[in-house]
Amino acid sequence: MEQKDLIESIEKNFKYKKEIKVIDGKQFIVTVEKDKVLNILSFLKLIDFKQLALITAVDWIDEKKFEIVYVLFSYSHIQQVLVKTFVERDNPQVETVKNLWDVASMYERDVHEFFGIDFVGNDDLRPLILHNWKDLPPLRKDFDSLKYSNKMFGKFKKDEEL
Amino acid sequence: MTEILTFLGKEDQYEKYELFFGPNHPGMHGNFSYILTVEGHTIKKVDPDPGLLHRGFEKLAERRKWMQNIALIPRICVPEPDINEVIYSIAVEKLMGIEVPIRAQYIRTIILEMARLGAFLFGFGGIGGATGLYTASYWTNADRDYLLDLFEWLSGARVYHMFIVPGGVRRDLPSGWIEKLSETVDYLQKRLYEYDRLIYNNPLIVKRLKGIGKLTKEEAIEYGITGPNLRATGVKYDTRKMVPYAAYNKIDFEIPIQSEGDGLARAIQRREEFQLSLDIIRKAIKDLPDGPVRLKMPNPLKFNVPKGEVYVKIESARGEHAYYIVSNGKDKPYRMAVRGGSYTAGLVLAQKILVGMRIEDVALWMATMDICPPDFDR
């Protein structure tokens, strides 16, 4: 299917509130409410968006929101779709999609570690990459890497102080 | 951490034990570890343990200006660094809505294919190393050096070139470089037949690779396997052909595929793609147009990229390497997420497919899948 038909099909079959934006001929964005993520993803998987390429997040600290992005690709339509949703920064929770794709579990573990977002239903959110991390999740915008470095490894001394 | 090695103490278990496969294991590719639960020789459970190589690129990139990041991002992927520069540049160009000169597109294509050849040579050597055929890794590493010499001539650096920038490439090709490249391509073509005799027609390797980690089409797509590993299962998809970037839409080529989806098919697929890369370089040299190689861009330390987001992927030697870049209109990227080509294969598929294999198959499976730890620890 062409991009136009795909968007039409989503418009027609996915009844909940959504916003569709085209990036270019091979890529478009669908933004949905956070409790409808599972619906839209399972619908997209049904219309042959079989590959889950990435789950990631963006910290919009000024709007007090996290944006979660699911990147899907279809080998038959040759289209990339970015499914986005927003969660509250104070209580970042979203339903897991690990039942749709096995790989989702690892991406969610990654995002949980780096943003502190909870994926409800995913029971394997153990630390993955950071060892013995006790600070704020590091990819949040309010995490200050210089302050952390000074705290952990001592302040950087200028040449004359040494 | 104290609980890990306590099977013996806790359960009075003598057959089952835990084996730390890496980071100091000779069969491990880089700084990464699988914690294997093993009974006798057979693997029962796999727990990947990345993080030993984590350098926080995604965070670092947020603190640097758009142009400064060019010096940082090639370091994400060690065997094939140029893909990062290209993705990043394409992303910035897409967000800014600029079109790169055609000669620069061709030069990018040549550089990408050279990097691909280098990565494949590393991969061939890996298969040799994991089967005890060390000659293969000596030969391939020595041949890779000829490519690095060319990169050194071109950019001054052997591994991290920082040659591709938003708006084109840093400078035009030096005189005589193309001729030298043609010579190297011819040399590698000759060597490929030697590799056939040494590796691909070697009964020992063929027998050893056959049936290792067999995947079907559906499984491969489900697990996000991309690139040569996906094509080895029979899916005829190549980002270079289907969603072209650089000058790939102007170069005509056929996508090779295999059908078995096992270790041997993956190895042969890589051999075929090595041939394909040589062909693409030849065609690109033949068609290389004249013209400017770099657009006039704003002051590198003062340019802002318009608001927006884009997901850019390209075909690396390990599969789909991609960036998701968000700009909020300022002088630094707001967010840069990296998708490594072997992320899902090494972290998720490994947990499923290695179960039931023997310990000595792990290194070989990793070599045929081209698992690269920098993909996990961006």
Helix-strand layout with pairing:
The complex is a heterodimer of chains A (162) and B (378).
Chain A: H1 3-13, E1 18-24, E2 27-32, H2 37-46, E3 51-60, E4 65-74, E5 79-88, E6 93-95, H3 103-115, E7 118-120, H4 145-153
Parallel strand pairs in A: 2-5, 6-7
Antiparallel strand pairs in A: 1-2, 3-4, 4-5
Chain B: H1 7-11, E1 16-21, E2 33-39, E3 42-49, H2 57-62, H3 69-72, H4 82-96, H5 102-131, H6 134-155, E4 164-165, E5 168-169, H7 177-200, H8 203-209, H9 217-222, H10 228-231, H11 239-242, H12 263-287, E6 308-316, E7 319-327, E8 335-339, H13 343-353, H14 359-369
Antiparallel strand pairs in B: 1-2, 2-3, 4-5, 6-7, 7-8
Helix pairs in contact in B: 5-6, 5-12, 5-14, 6-7, 7-12, 12-14
Give descriptors for this structure.
heterodimer, A: 162 residues, alpha/beta, 5-stranded mixed sheet, two-stranded parallel ribbon, 7 strands, B: 378 residues, alpha+beta, 3-stranded antiparallel sheet, 14 helices, 13% strand
Give a structural overview:
Chain B: This is NADH-ubiquinone oxidoreductase chain D. Chain B: Pfam families: Complex1_49kDa. Chain B: Residues 132-297, 302-378 form the NADH-quinone oxidoreductase subunit D domain. The complex is a heterodimer of chains A (162) and B (378). Chain A is of the alpha/beta class and 162 residues long. Chain A has a single domain (3-153), classed as NADH:ubiquinone oxidoreductase Nqo5 subunit (Beta Polymerase, domain 2), CATH 3.30.460. Chain A has 4 helices and 7 strands, in the order αββαββββαβα. In chain A, the strands form 2 sheets. A 5-stranded mixed β-sheet of chain A has the order 1-2-5-4-3. In chain A, strand 6 (93-95), helix 3 and strand 7 (118-120) form a beta-alpha-beta unit. Chain A starts with a helix and ends in a 9-residue tail after the last helix. The model of chain A has no long low-confidence stretch (mean pLDDT 88). By secondary structure, chain B is of the alpha+beta class. Chain B has a single domain, classed as Cytochrome-c3 Hydrogenase, chain B. Chain B has 14 helices and 8 strands. Chain B has helices at residues 7-11, 57-62, 69-72, 82-96, 102-131, 134-155, 177-200, 203-209, 217-222, 228-231, 239-242, 263-287, 343-353, 359-369, and strands spanning 16-21, 33-39, 42-49, 164-165, 168-169, 308-316, 319-327, 335-339. Chain B has a 3-stranded antiparallel β-sheet with strand order 1-2-3. A 3-stranded antiparallel β-sheet of chain B has the order 6-7-8. In chain B, strands 4-5 form a two-stranded antiparallel sheet. In chain B, strand 6 (308-316) and strand 7 (319-327) form a beta hairpin. The chains are: A alpha/beta (162), B alpha+beta (378).
